[in-house]
Fold each of these.
Amino acid sequence: MKTLNFANRNLKELIRDPITIIFAIIFPECLLVLMSFINRNIPIDLFSIEKLSPGIAFFGLSFLSMFTAINISSDMETSFLTRLFSTTMKARNFIFGYVLPNVLIGIVQTLICFASSIAFGLKAQVSLVGAVAVSAVCSVLFVSIGICLGCVLSNKASGGVSSIVIQLSAWLSGIWFDIKLVGNVYQKICEVLPFYHGVEAIKAAINLDLSATISNLLWIIGYTIIFMIISTLLFKKKMK
Amino acid sequence: MKAIKCENLTKKFKNINAVDGLNFEVEEGELFSLLGTNGAGKSTTIKMLCGLLKPTSGDAKIFDESILKEEFKKFVAVSPQETAVAKNLTVKENLLFMAKIYFDKTKAEEKTKEIIKEFSLEKVENQRAKTLSGGYQRRLSIAMAVISEPKLLFLDEPTLGLDVISMHELWDTITNLKKKSTIILTTHYMKEAEKLSDKIAIMKNGKIIALGTADELIKLSRKSDFEEAFIEISKENGGDIR
Ligand SMILES: Nc1ncnc2c1ncn2[C@@H]1O[C@H](COP(=O)(O)OP(=O)(O)O)[C@@H](O)[C@H]1O
Ligand SMILES: [Mg+2]
């Protein structure tokens, strides 16, 4: 009840902020359209809709870390969280109150991305449902990163630093170029971080490649658990 | 029963004694003011008494429950010095959100209606908080604290930055709240302390340097009005007022 109440407030706060709509929906949508048109004229395998669509879906989710970080740091600045810390709300009410609305937005983002990808030639297939589920798990990862950032950064810094996370996630996920072509070290770095596995998991889910879906998803789940633990600890420290 | 009983309540930040061994009591039903200039330690005292900061040493009992445990939180609500409202929610949504932390849906909706009326927020109830004037924001912030029906209400500088009209309106609102809750108010504004309080504690450098009713403090300083009394008492306790 307390969790849902807080989740409801965060959802309203998010969808009433034009930044959310611009970054979560419009920006990824523009990229998708742009790259698809380029690909029509200069076909590159990497930007075929089957590969582009999972990449854009994942890229859109990375903005959830920014929304969460900004939400928390500005609530700290206005003392709104301070007020809530003096109530009987517990750390888990807060954490899940951030996770739920962002996952919902993540699911909507992915649905919109897939819907428009279908317009550009992605096959409408049942496996897309599984891919949306994988996206939902990736959303939790980005929210937990966002909670960590929001806890340690001021309101001024949180926007900037989380956009670095978004950049990193984009460069290290193999959306914009094939990581195997860049070099060994680079490829290794990508492979021990979760971002590349996120895109691969969504791709594999669409292709109904169960073993690849699971092996990549395990990376995401592992990192999500780690960031969830860190964010809970940081948040509890904030509450003291 | 005492609403508050401080026992050597102390908070140190590195080398500053922000709050230095406070021992005071507040009776249930009283409006008790902490009066002092910027940096006197008022906000730090309030933050400890509503569980937002752990004391470095000492303790306080809120209706007999120690602030070092969790139980006392059900008695208190705070309106922080900053106007702590959710900016993108409307006035009504802000209030309903707070009410739902404490009550079920039906009761929460009832309480929200009641509080909107009590705080004369009808005109702006569907307006987003960020579009409100300073006076309305402050009033909403206090209403969000009151909605939980706290036995003990903390108001940290409730009239800071308000124009004269808004300030007088808020004073009337606070006077009405006295009927329901014990109130601890901080202010650096002498007239506010004098007008609203049953008892006033003058704070300086983390210590209470005088405590009593406004009249008692005037007598103590042998001056003719409260403002002069405040200045005199502050001077006697170590040079300039700051
Ligand atoms: N988080 C903090 N870290 C370090 N010093 C602090 C902190 N909070 C308050 N102080 C210091 O403690 C003293 C009392 O501050 P405060 O309680 O905010 O005073 P007031 O509310 O009376 O203006 C000031 O000297 C202030 O600088
Ligand atoms: Mg203060």
Amino acid sequence: MSWFAKLKQGLARTSDRLTSGVASVFTGRRLDAAALEELEDLLIMADLGPAAAAEVAQNLRRTKFGKDVTELEIREALAADIAKMLAPVAVPLDIAAARRPFVVLVIGVNGTGKTTTIGKLANAYKRAGKSVMIAAGDTFRAAAVEQLQIWGQRAGVPVIAKATGADAAGLAFEALEQAQQANADILLIDTAGRLHNKSNLMDELKKIIRVIKKLDPSAPHETLLILDATTGQNAHAQVKTFSEMADVTGLALTKLDGTAKGGVIVALAKAYDLPVRLVGVGEGQDDLQPFEPEAFARSLLGL
Amino acid sequence: MFESLSDRLSGAFKKLTGKGALSEGDVREAMREVRLALLEADVALPVAKSFIDRTTEKAIGAAVLRSISPGQQVVKIVHDELVAMLGGAGAGTELSLGANPPAVVLMCGLQGSGKTTTTGKLAVRLKLRERKRVLMASVDVHRPAAQQQLATLGLQAGVDTLPVVFGELAPAIARRAIDTAKRQGYDVVFIDTAGRTTIDEAMMREAEEVSRIVRPNETLLVADAMTGQDAVSVAEAFGQRLGVTGIVLTRVDGDARGGAALAMRTVTGKPIRFMGTGEKLDAIEPFHADRIAGRILGMGDIVSLVERAAETIEQEDAERLAKKLASGRMDLTDLLSQLRQMKKMGGLGGLMGMLPQIGAMKKQMAEAKIDEKLLGRQEAIILSMTPKEREKPDILKASRKRRIAAGAGVEVQDVNRLLKQFDQMSGMMKQMNKMGRKKGKKGGMPALPPGMGMPGAQSGAQPTLPPGLGAGLPRLPGMPGKGGFNPFGR
Ligand SMILES: Nc1nc2c(ncn2[C@@H]2O[C@H](COP(=O)(O)OP(=O)(O)OP(=O)(O)O)[C@@H](O)[C@H]2O)c(=O)[nH]1
Ligand SMILES: [Mg+2]
């Protein structure tokens, strides 16, 4: 199945709710204040958050207010607006050959899909002919190392690991050393999930980055923050705090194959201007796709 | 980031003061602010709407119109209603395990919601508190190393896990778990299922089959406190297909406002039983509706604050400081440890976010131009001093100050400022001590570290914290007294 089909399937139920709403509101109806408010509600239900939802709806007010509109027109117009807002942040990850090994540090709160995304990325780069290594930097959670090792085996990529309880920064350092010696193209570093409001855990993250820089001052070349599409407005706090602590350079949005729409990314794109690198659309090795604003926006509106 | 509801409402009602009575229209206006607060807290829209309808009626009918402080009154009505909705029968109650062991507890939820960790926590809880013999079994054959994760937790927790048989499918594992529990006389068996999206039909059917096989006494939906509007779909799907009997809200130790709890509760009609408050196996507690209600409304979760402080502040440090304070003698080393404690608590930002009436304070802080980096700079200054200098700041003359400034990478005037503020602080400390002794209080609250002074903050009433805690905490307005958290008290 193409990523678009998958995404669409995933969003179908939500879109149903969204679009049946839009349909009932707009089939051959004048776009008045009440209609706009209902539209805003529908966007809120997609996790855009009240402010971004209001803004998107206001855009529509400027262009279409008072006109007779059909349901399809409205959906098209809304999707176009949202896609336009998202376009600047749809910047795929570019593995610069000059940076070798290209170090990708994967961070985020607990359970968002860091390890899975690394497994998927390892597979994708391996298939593209790159030499890839993985560092099992989650030395805290039970069986985190084993989980990553299985992903490494699947992709045919070596996983550098120590026993649970080892120092994460030390592991990252050794992994980079080994990747440098092996002249690998890419090193993917997994980290333990951490809540952004726990300063001791955030300090640990900073330490990992400090230690990596001792070997390569330009590393990490990508610090990828993994966001779960199920997350609501707390994603703002996650992006804010992780950015402050770890200089995030890209976002990945996972679990778009479920009913959650991840609409918060619309507001995040505006507020933080961080590239959205990837989306996760399942638990399989190949369920990783580039972020395509148009497809994302259209799927959101059931088009 | 979020304005607290109280702030918003006082804004909304400002235009109305002096009008005498509030009309229905006025209340509806205020309720728009409430609606916004709920949505920012991730309360699902349909749930927020019905909530607003109900509270609007109550507010119009109630004393609001005659109240002196209509804003506060509306906040109270909204808060009470929220507590009532989140709480109610069964909220925060222990698991109901039936009379015929083994009792079966089925854990379900989305991927990454915290099922496995919660399974471990609940198992430990039953083992320790009720001396139950507990068995845990993972039927997650989908996520790599999921079964091993539970096995490892079992070892850490001293709770038995069902031996893993490679290649076995979920229904077969479930059957074996029940058989084993029966044969080996376990009191309780936990079935930890794989995370699944609600529209993955094959996976939902698998969960139904497992449920049919194990006939659970309890089916717990494990949901992340950070969940957004999707809470409705999740609660609907798991509720209908698996007959959820209770909810566990995880990652309450984060800073999510937790509005999803309201949707979960409303849509399933089932109580929220527990909340997860950390990664350790003992970090689980019965659900407290009032705490989550306060968070949803952006009034801060004072209990979390106090707990976090207790967790962060090293007891010894706190006690040492308390003693010093009591004696009225304090030196720069004490100040240093206080600065560090503040930093540990996530800096001012983290701390502030947990406090009630936060909006007003943030404004004060902004006015005072308080900079979190200041903490770090002040720390550096003190660290550049010799032990003797820290103990007797009086000996600091120009040349020493220059050396210290250079060492800390600041200007001499920064050093002077710190010393001056330290002086003021020790002075205040002495005064407070005198007052404290007169009133016979146990642990006085230390003043803010230098530079943290809060213009416009109410002086006077100095609430106390539990002994041992107070010593390490900066003085902040709006801290609760021993009587507990009253968001409306002033
Ligand atoms: N449906 C779906 N599930 C996903 C996706 N990405 C990850 N998951 C699942 O989400 C759960 C958590 O994923 P992990 O990769 O372990 O997440 P993590 O961030 O490494 O978790 P911790 O290390 O425990 O913090 C697992 O069950 C994954 O299979 C996705 O795109 N779609
Ligand atoms: Mg992981």
